[in-house]
Amino acid sequence: MRRTSEETKAAILAAARERFGVVGFQAATIRAIAADAGVDPAMVMRYFGNKEKLFADATGFDLRFPDLTGLDPAQVGRSLVAHFLERWEGEEALLILLRSSATNADASQQMLHIFGTQLQPLVARLAPPGESSWRSGLIASQILGLAWCRFVLRLPPVVEMSRDEIVDWVGPTIQRYLELPQGAG
Nearest-CA neighbor of 25 among 111, 91, 86? Predict the structure, then answer.
């Protein structure tokens, strides 16, 4: 059965996500991804141009932040931690990107871009003017560190914690990054 170009592109992206997730960016090859997708390697190049662009498309995602307007401002930190845990648990591309960002400059840049263009504007709506950059950086450090320990290193004490326990422990830290005035502490 012949696939449409959209079906072919989707098959290539699915194969790329799987391959990048299993072997990482460096070890994944266009030839192996094409074989996994059941297409000629030339098709992968036609749709994506090179491995870096394929990786960017395979790991691109929207953090899909919840609407925080009706939420008690004192609960935003907890809400963000719960949201990020849900995203890490449900988004294979995000875990692929996290694993790859430790060893690949393109993956690292993509992670920086995602957090910079999605988290910082959210924090800018909540933080005092001029402080969103460093506040979002501190939030990202907590969230990425948590994800690294729970989903990549699989650090036993962190893996064994329930989602609610993590929200209870990390949520107040995120809240602090959103509320404390600069220089306070």
Answer: 111
102 DSSP 8-state letter: T
For the full predicted model, state whether its pTM sits above 0.85: no
DSSP code string of 133-179: HHHHHHHHHHHHHHHIIIIIS--HHHHHS-HHHHHHHHHHHHHHHHH
The topology (CATH level 3) of 5-58 is Arc Repressor Mutant, subunit A (1.10.10)
In angstroms, what is the C-alpha Rg of the chain?
19
List the CATH code of the domain at 73-179. 1.10.357
pLDDT in tens, 45-80: 999 999 988 988 887 778 889 888 889 989 999 999
For residue 153, what are the contacts with CB-CB under 8 A and spacing of at least 6?
none
